[in-house]
């Protein structure tokens, strides 16, 4: 979810980093971020199939990110 920027900036970031395989949304007023307790970037919100969220602040090593995403996909 992009925040603190424009829709165009988010689309550019997604394209540059090859992230077009997952859903994205733009949080122009900060309400989505606030709902998850996100205070700034970098932050990650992982949602499972039941809608339960886990928020991680800071950078995530690639291996940990893959582990988290694989666990969500397998659930």
Please tell me about this protein's structure.
This protein is of the alpha+beta class. It has one domain. Helices cover 39% and strands 13% of the residues. It contains three helices and two strands; from the N terminus they run ααββα. The protein has helices at 7-16, 31-36, 62-74, and strands at residues 43-47, 53-57. It has a two-stranded antiparallel sheet with strand order 1-2. A hairpin with a 5-residue loop joins β1 and β2. The protein is globular. The two termini are 22 Å apart. The mean pLDDT is 87.
Q: TL;DR?
A:
The protein has 75 residues and is of the alpha+beta class.
Keywords:
75 residues, alpha+beta, two-stranded antiparallel sheet, 3 helices
Average pLDDT taken over every residue: 87
Give the number of DSSP strands: 2
Number of helices: 3
Domains (count): 1
Largest sheet: 2 strands, antiparallel
Strand content: 5-15%
Task: Report how far the terminal alpha carbons are from each other.
Answer: 22 Å
Overall form: globular
State the order of secondary-structure elements, H for helix, E for strand.
HHEEH
* Low-pLDDT residue intervals, each spanning 5 or more residues: none
- The amount of helix comes to 25-40%
Radius of gyration: 13 Å
Structural class by helix and strand composition:
alpha+beta
Strand order of the largest sheet: 1-2
List the helices and strands and how they pair.
Elements: H1 7-16, H2 31-36, E1 43-47, E2 53-57, H3 62-74
Antiparallel strand pairs: 1-2
């Amino acid at each position: 979810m992009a925040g603190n920027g424009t829709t165009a900036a988010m689309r550019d970031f997604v394209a540059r980093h090859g992230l077009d395989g997952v859903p994205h949304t733009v949080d122009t007023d900060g309400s989505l971020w606030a709902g998850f307790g996100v205070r700034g970037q970098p932050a990650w919100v992982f949602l499972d199939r039941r809608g339960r969220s886990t928020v991680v602040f800071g950078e995530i090593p690639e291996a940990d990110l893959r582990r988290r995403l694989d666990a969500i996909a397998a659930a």
